[in-house]
Amino acid sequence: MVIYFLLFPMIAMIYLMTLLLRQKAQIQKTIFCVLTFGTLGFISASRASSVGTDVTLYENIFKSINYGMSAENNLGYVIYNKLIGNVFGYTGHEITAANSVLITILIGFFIWKVAEHYFVATFLYISLFYYATSFNISRQFIAMGLVLVAISFALDKKVMPWFILTVLATLFHATAIVAFPVYWLTKVHWDAKKTLGIFPITIFASFIFDDILNIFVRFLPHYEMYITGTQFNIADQGQGRVVLVKVFILFILLGLLLLYQKRYGLISERHHNIIALTTVGLSIGIVFYNNVLLNRVELFYSILSIVFIPIAIDYISLKFKEKDTVRLMLTIGILLITLVPYYIQVSGNYSGILPYTMNK
């Protein structure tokens, strides 16, 4: 278990080292992302099949695809598995290593491209349990990484890269289809009321969810496995506790909107979009907290919390005279608070990541 907590001093030392290099800010950021995500990728790629509840399943799928015996119907993932198998062989661990490297490259690129406070964003990527979760739902995390990179282009108003990457994500995991509204959401002129309005819309959707679900499952029947009767099983998801993390982030959002409800124009358009997209994830995650399928869906949006939180801290601290001191205190306080649920999730072995052992 110790290795998962050593990640924090490790990224702190890398961050301090980059600052001591006294290079241009962008060069420091690049060095930090390469070293940090290179290390995170190595740790993930080197793990044994027992580290993560889904690892053996993915390795078996990988072998069955390369032996021509798989019923896997996500074309992009099949081609990707074939490519890895043809280049590196297909004893099993090759796909675990490849998935780990690809995920960390995509997440690292997103943070490099979008995060203004890249150390805080990386810390939150770990402390909000996204890194550990990637040990399990690897295929979805590849899709999420592609969607995040697509979002980075949508924020820059670059339609074609956003579209191509989003389509590619759906070829790895069908639930990535929920990311298609992203570009149009970035076209909305957001204010505090519209942002908060996402919650009542989500609540209304919960009343007609069965009808929406029937349409969804009709087109994507293999996701019916997430349904048990009319409800979803949350026993193995830990969502009853994880939702508290989302409520905590919601309080940060409400604090930001309360302080800027009449002066929302002071927040940049780019930040408006990041705040709105994060709110979509929070609303789905809270309203549908006990719904396994929508827990998967909301991850595509809620992972944006890692860049939203430092943005919110910046704007909130501007309301105080000693803004630098307030920013530092808020950052330290929030990061420490996120370590509490992180400890609970790691020690409770939520994703089957204990004990960590290396592949032999």
Structure, described:
The chain has 360 residues and is an all-alpha fold. The protein is built from 18 helices and no strands. The chain has helices spanning 2-20, 25-45, 55-66, 75-88, 93-114, 118-127, 130-133, 138-155, 159-170, 182-185, 192-196, 198-207, 209-219, 239-260, 269-287, 292-302, 305-317, 323-347. The longest helix is centred in the C-terminal third of the chain and has 25 residues, at 323-347. Mean pLDDT is 91; it is low at 228-237.
Quantity of strands, as a count: 0
Overall geometry comes to globular
Question: Could you describe the largest sheet, including whether it forms a barrel?
Answer: none
In whole angstroms, the N-to-C terminal distance is 19 Å
Return the average pLDDT rounded to an integer. Answer: 91
Could you tell me the strand content as a percent range? under 5%
For the CA atoms, what is the radius of gyration?
Answer: 20 Å
Runs in which pLDDT lies below 50 for 5 or more consecutive residues are 228-237
Helix content: over 70%
Main structural class = mainly alpha
Q: How many H/I helical runs? A: 18
Order of helices and strands: HHHHHHHHHHHHHHHHHH
